[in-house]
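Consider the following assembly input.
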Amino acid sequence: MLRMNSVSKVYRTDTVETHALREFSLSVEEGEFVSVTGPSGSGKTTFLNIAGLLEELTDGSYELDGRDISSLNDRERSRVRNEKIGFIFQSFNLIPELDIFDNVDVPLRYRGLKSAERRRRVERCLELVGLASRMKHLPAQLSGGQQQRVAIARALAGEPRFLLADEPTGNLDTHMADSVMELLAEINAGGTTIIMVTHELTLADRAKRNIFVRDGNVSDGYGSDASPELHFASAANA
Amino acid sequence: MEFGPIWRAMLRNKGGFLLIALQIAVTMTIMVNAIAIIQERSRNIARPSGLDEANTFTLVSVSIGEDMDNKSLIDEDLDLLRGMPGVLNATASNSMPLLQSGWSEGLTLEPGEGKSDSSSALYFADEHTADTFALNFVEGANFEPNQVEWRNHEVNDWPPFVIVSRALAEDLFPDETGSYVGKTFYIDDDNPVNIIGVVERMQAAWQGWSGLERSMLVPQRQDWNFTRYIVRTEPGYREELMPEIEDMLVKSNPDRIIQSVRSMDEVRKLAYLGDAAMIRILTFIVALLTVITGLGIVGLASFNVSRRTRQIGIRRALGATRPAIVRHFMVENLLVSVIGIGVGGILAVALNMFMVEAFALEPLAWYVIPAAMSVLLIVGQLAVAGPARKASNVTPAIATRSV
Ligand SMILES: Nc1ncnc2c1ncn2[C@@H]1O[C@H](COP(=O)(O)OP(=O)(O)OP(=O)(O)O)[C@@H](O)[C@H]1O
Ligand SMILES: [Mg+2]
């Protein structure tokens, strides 16, 4: 479903070149729950951004759902993000001036769905995360855990095949982190592919497969079906 | 479209938007009423005097010699003027339309002191005046040479005949449906005068007077040491003849001074100096206000773009295309503008009604308000376009990169 082959990402400023990803190759199949760990600055977020079409890659190839991403223009990339991918961010990233309902509604409006269909989906997703009673609240009126659940509802409302999460529990206490993890596991059980970046190995363990990133490169820690493009098999993670 | 959430988000962030809406409303109010005044002044400036303005000029002769015989000086001058090749006709009078200074009289329909029934500008005239003024007779006829008399400080009875402008005739005899010729009115309380001719149009000397169109020719020539000549040339000869004629008159008699040589264009320009200045000032104010409003919109939009950089990135991550981001800011501006021009429209009409009452301004032309609304809508959309484009360039990576 996701195939990266020798992807590299270079950030250039006037004075420095940062190689955030080097020859990064990875395959993720439909329905997998992959956790991504690695030291700070190793390139986890960069990988996620490229996977989620938030940034363009410098070199290599990336296929999503059998489609070569490099040939897409901005409009098509926006559309892929909108229809196939759901994002969950560490800092929730709800839009502060919209109430909960409108926040979950945002991607559905960009998709151009009819109002009745949008309402049905928003209400269902908010029910799923247990926040249907807070629809008229503003994000600032919710706890962190609640906000992250709204963000998950927003990611799910578009019924994506693919959920990308960057430290989804990073700003939450253990109890709330647990409930978010349970929710993700449920979603994955429903067939959605999930890639989750995390620092916490205990949480990473709850994924079916663990990827370890170091210096912009990848090693597959747990996978019985390690990807064939794997270059470094130095299973550095514990 | 996404009016709903944009509107609700604006309600949670009213301050800046309200200020801009207010600014648009005020601009609209001032713009509409300034345009109303500009239109009225322009209409005033465009009113015809009745003269052949393009080919007419005027000059003044002031006698300075001791015991001058003004009568023969005026006759000699007029002979010279009328004999000049390129001159169609010439006359001497106390004043002329648009000159800003002149003679007026109260008129009554019955003899005796009392409230006057009308009033009129008065031009002393000979049998050449009507032709020099290029007057168009709608009925009756011009003075005969023998009807014209001299008038001076001793002999100043009113003559028995006059030629009036149609507006004066209508003002004096509002119920008359037939001929005005032969009708009598009284000048200076108890001097009866008979209308022998009616001309289509001959303005008074004061462009700001409400009775501007009421005037009459009186068949008298002024035997004074101050004489105004009015000269009508053949088409195209005026500019050339003005200095030549000035020269000729100066040389013809050293005991007088020739001054105030002015084409009718200059006379008109002087008369409407105030109106023209008012038009320029108001145009400048309207342009300035429009620019300031545009800049205000640019400022607010730029501020909103930087304030919402993160949320723009999030929207892009969630699938907003660049055009969708541009549209977001355009719609936001549209909502603010609609409120602004809506309130502005009401204020503009209110102010206009007040001005119609207080300053007898003509009511607004129907198209001014929709035109001003369109201009402000377009200005708003243009002003917001730059910041909106900038917003659309925000990278979606902001969503994961900033905390
Ligand atoms: N916009 C950018 N410009 C320049 N360098 C960047 C940019 N974004 C990331 N980098 C660099 O790329 C490298 C990889 O960064 P990345 O954010 O992917 O790390 P990470 O694994 O997510 O780290 P963390 O665990 O701290 O979030 C880092 O060295 C970082 O400094
Ligand atoms: Mg990161």
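Chain B has two domains: 3-46+273-401, 65-254. Ask yourself how this observation constrains the way the partners meet.
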